[in-house]
TrEMBL record:
It is found in: Cell inner membrane; Cell membrane. The chain crosses the membrane at residues 20-42, 188-209. One of its GO terms (biological process) is amino acid transport. It comes from Cereibacter ovatus. Belongs to the binding-protein-dependent transport system permease family. HisMQ subfamily. NCBIfam families: ectoine_ehuD (TIGR03003), HEQRo_perm_3TM (TIGR01726). It holds the Pfam family BPD_transp_1. It is a multi-pass membrane protein. This is Amino acid ABC transporter membrane protein 2 (PAAT family).
Length: 219
C-alpha cells in the first residue's frame, strides 16, 4: 500500500506539535529579521559613519550559508560564553541571517523616496530624526512589503535546517516517524502539504497587509 490513511491520521498529532515549533521559529525569526533589518537601515541613514561597518557585516552574513551560521551559534557560541538552547540558537541565527536581506530591502525603499522629500523637511526646519520617522519612513515602507513577504515565506521554508541541531520541527519529526515505522510517504507528504498551505496563507496575509497599508497611505 502506497498510502495508508489510518497511519496518516495516527501521526497527525505528532506532526501538529512539531508544526507549532516550526511556526514559533518562523514568527520569532521574522520578527527579529524585520526589526533588526530596519534598525540597521536607519542606523546607516542617521549615522553615516556606521554605513561601512554595517555594509561589511551585512555582506558577510549574506555571503555565508545559513546552516554554517546555525552551527557556529549553537556549537561555537558556548566557547565564548554564549550558551543557548537549540530552538533559541536556531531562531536567532535565522533572524540575523534574514535581517541582512531585509536591511537591503529597506535600503532600497528609502532610496526610492525622492530627494525632494528630504529637502522639503529641511525647509520646514525639521531635524533629521523627525524627518526620517515622520516623512521618509511612511513612504519607504509600503513599497517594500511584497519583498519582505517573500523573505517571510523563504524563512519559513528554511526552518527544516534547524533539524541539524536537533530541533524537533516538522521535517525532523517526519524523519523520526519514518525511521520508526519505515513509512516515509505519509509523513513527508503531510509535511509538504503543511508547508504549501502555510506558504499560501502567508502570501494571502501579506497581500492583505499591503492593501491595508496602501489604503491607509492614500487616505
Amino acid at each position: 500500500m502506497i498510502w495508508d490513511w489510518a497511519f496518516a491520521i495516527e501521526i497527525l498529532p505528532r506532526l501538529g506539535q512539531a508544526a507549532i515549533v516550526t511556526v514559533q521559529a518562523t514568527v520569532m525569526g521574522f520578527a527579529l529579521a524585520a526589526t533588526l533589518g530596519l534598525g540597521l537601515t536607519l542606523a546607516r541613514i542617521a549615522w553615516p559613519r556606521t554605513a561601512l561597518p554595517i555594509s561589511v557585516g551585512v555582506e558577510l552574513v549574506r555571503s555565508t550559508p545559513l546552516l554554517i551560521q546555525i552551527f557556529v551559534l549553537y556549537f561555537v557560541g558556548p566557547e565564548i560564553g554564549l550558551v543557548l538552547d537549540a530552538l533559541t540558537a536556531g531562531t536567532l541565527a535565522i533572524g540575523v541571517h534574514y535581517a541582512a536581506y531585509c536591511s537591503e530591502v529597506y535600503r532600497a525603499g528609502f532610496e526610492a523616496v525622492p530627494r525632494s522629500q528630504w529637502e522639503a523637511a529641511e525647509a520646514l526646519n525639521l531635524n533629521r530624526g523627525t524627518a526620517l520617522m515622520r516623512i521618509i519612513l511612511p513612504q519607504a515602507i509600503p513599497p517594500v512589503i511584497p519583498a519582505l513577504g517573500n523573505y517571510l515565506v523563504a524563512l519559513f521554508k528554511e526552518t527544516p535546517l534547524l533539524s541539524a541541531i536537533a530541533v524537533l520541527e516538522l521535517m525532523q519529526t517526519a524523519k523520526i516517524i519514518g525511521s520508526e515505522s519505515f513509512r516515509y510517504t505519509e509523513p513527508i507528504t503531510l509535511v509538504g502539504l503543511f508547508f504549501l498551505g502555510m506558504s499560501l496563507i502567508s502570501a494571502a496575509l501579506i497581500r492583505l497587509v499591503e492593501a491595508r497599508i496602501t489604503q491607509g497611505v492614500r487616505r
